[in-house]
Amino acid sequence: MNELKRRISNYSVMGVLGVIVCAGVLPISPIASSEQAGTAFSQDFSQPLDLSLFTEAHGRMEIDTALQESTVAVSGGRLHIKAGEQNYGDSAVRVNQPFDFTGRTGTITFDVNTNQTHGWTEVALSELPYPYVSFASDNTFGPFPQEGILLQYRGSRGCVNLKVYRQGAQTADAQQCGNYGLKTGPAILNHVVIQISTSQITVTTDRHKVTFPVSLGFSRGYLYLISHNHATMKYANQPTWDTQWDNLSFDGPVILVTRVALFPFNLPANPGNPRLVLMARHDLQNRDVTLAYRLNNGPAHSIPLVRRSDQVAVYMISQAVDPSELRTGRNTVTFEHTGMGRPQFTNAQLVWDGPAATAAPAPSGLSDLAFSEDFSTPTAFSERFDHAWSGEWNFGSMFRADRNDWHADHGMMCENPNTSHRTIHLTSQEQANEAAFYYCMPEGNPDKGHVMTSVNTEGFVTVWFSPKQTFHNVSKVCWDQNITDLGGGKWTIVNFLTAAEYAGKTDLGYTSPDFPKSGGPSSPQGPAANGVRLSRGSMNSYTNGQFYGGARGVTVSDKAARYKHCVVDNGNGTLTTTIAQPNGRTVSQKVPGSIPRGEIRVQFADDSYNPDKHFDAKGVASNSSNLYTWHWDNIQIYTTNQRE
C-alpha cells in the first residue's frame, strides 16, 4: 500500500446569497514539496474521504426541477459519487493537490465504471480551482473553465469525448473510439490511464488506446472526478447516476495541497493567494447581469461574468481576492447583483496556498425535546397554539371576485381528502380567524388526528399558528405536512421570530423575505428575518433576510399523506434541512444559516396569493380546484443549553 494513503470523510456545502458569517475550517496538514518526478498522489479509498485532499460539489442547469439526493462517500473500498442533479447536472470531487505536467508527459491512473445510459463518467483538469467543470451540449449549458479539459465516456463502448477550453472558450471537441468490445457495467471498474502533455492526450481504457492532438494553455491544474446526470428520473425513473472510483494516482512533483475553507469560513493568518470559488446561476437566460462581492463589509469588487456561446444563466467563479481584506478567524462575504432573477450561489469556498493553522469549530450542544404535539386530541390545537388570519378577510370581494367560499380538504365527517371536501365560508375578520383552521380525526383514530389550514384569496393572506410559549436556544424544529403541489400561489412558512419581532404583538402573521416584491403585496407584519419557505416539494432557508436554499424533494397528488420536515441548527453556522420522501428516503441539504439564539417563537404559516391565478386550473371554476389546504401534524421543537 502506498504510504501517501490518507484518512477520508464525507463533506458537502451549499454556498450563499447575501451575508456569510464564518466560524470554521478544515484541519489539515501540509505535504512536503518535491521536485522529483514519481508518484505524487495516491488514494485507494480504503478509509473515509479526507476533507483536506478532496472537495465535493454539486450543480445543475435547471432551477426548478426536483432534485434527488446527491452523495459522495467511500464504501466497500471505492469512492461512490451519486449525482441526483436532475435535468441536467453533475456531482464532482476535486483533488486539492495540483497535478503538474510542465515540460513533460504526466500520467493519471484510476479505475472507474465507464458505462453510459442516462448519465456518464467524466474526468476534468482546470488551471484554476472551480467547484467543477461543465460543458455546452446535450441540454447542458456551461459554464466553462478559463483553461482546462473535460474527458467524457460517451457513445458506444470505448468512446472518449475530449473538450478543450482556452481563455474561457471551447476550442476543441473531438471523439475517439476504440474498435473493440470493452466490457462495461454499473459495478464493473475499467482501468484508465491518461497521459497528458500540452500537445497530446492519450487515454487507455483496459489496454485499449485513443489519442488526441491538443494545444493546451496550461500545464498545472486540479483534477476532477465527475458523475454527470442526464435526467435519470425523466428517462428511467432512476434517482441518481452513480460512478465508482478506485486506485487513483498521478505522478510528477508533489505540490503543496491547496487549502479549502467551506462555509463557515474560518481563516488562518496571512493566507497565501486567496480565491473566492463558487457557482452562480439565475433564471433569466437573456439579460445582462452584474455581480459583486464584499469581504467583511469592505469595498465592493466586481466579478467578471462573461456569458459564453451556448451558456445559459450559470457561471463558475474563481476570483482572486485581496488578502488584506480577510481576517484571522471569522469572516463575512456579501454578494450584490443586478438583473438576476432568483439567484442561487452554491458550492462557496475560500481557497489559498500554504499551511493552515486555525482553531477547529466548537462542538454543538446536545438537544432536548422541549415541545411535542401529535394532535391526538381535538382540543390540543386551541389549548397549546395561538393562531389567526393575518390580512383582509374579504380580499376576494375587494378585488371584485368571490373568494370567500372555497373547497377545503376532507368532508364534514373527515372523509378521504382526495375524494371529499367541505366549503369554507367567511363572514367577518373574527370568524376568519377560526374558519381557516379545523381538526380531523379520520376513522376516529387518535393516531390519525391532525390540523388543517385552508385559504383561498385574490390578494395576499397569511394564516398562522404558533406554540403559545417561547423557546430558548432552539436547535431543531420538525413537523409533518403534505407535499401536494398546490401551485405557485400556495406555500408554507416556518419562521423563527426573535423578541424584536414577536414582543408586544398578538398578530404573528409574518411571511418570508421575498414578499413584498418591489413594494407589492405582503402580510401585515411583513417578512421575518429567519426561517424556511416550502413550495412545490422544496425547502428554501433564510437567515438574516437572505435565502440560502435547502432540501429539494418531489411532490405527490395524494393529500392525505404527511411527510416529516426538519431544520437542524448544526451549531457552526450551518443548517441541515431534510424532507422525507414517498419512496422512504429522506432528501437532505446542508446550507449556510442558523436559528437565532436566545428566546424565539416558532411560527407556522399558510401563505396564499391568488391560488386560482397562479395554478393552471383551466376549465375549473374558481374556488373549486380543491387545492387550497395544508395538513399539519407532529410538531416537535428541540432546544440546547450549549449555544451561548
In short:
With 644 residues, the protein is mainly beta. Helix content is 5%, strand content 44%.
Largest β-sheet summary = 8 strands, antiparallel
Q: Unreliable segments (pLDDT under 50, ≥5 consecutive)?
A: 1-37, 356-365, 396-401
Strand content is 35-45%
- Number of DSSP strand runs: 46
**What is the CATH first-level class name of the largest domain?**
Mainly Beta
Radius of gyration: 26 Å
Give the second-level CATH assignment, the architecture of the largest domain. Answer: Sandwich
How many distinct folded domains?
2
Tally of helical runs: 6
- The CATH topology of the largest domain is given as Jelly Rolls
What is the CA-CA span between the terminal residues?
46 Å
- Gross geometry: elongated
Helical content (DSSP H or I, runs of 4+):
under 10%
Structure description:
The chain has 6 helices and 46 strands. Helix content is 5%, strand content 44%. The chain is elongated, with a radius of gyration of 26 Å. The chain is mainly β and 644 residues long. The protein folds into 2 domains: 223 residues, Sandwich (Jelly Rolls), CATH 2.60.120; 270 residues, Sandwich (Jelly Rolls), CATH 2.60.120.200. The strands form 9 sheets. Strands 2, 4, 5, 8, 15, 16, 17 and 19 form an 8-stranded antiparallel sheet that branches.
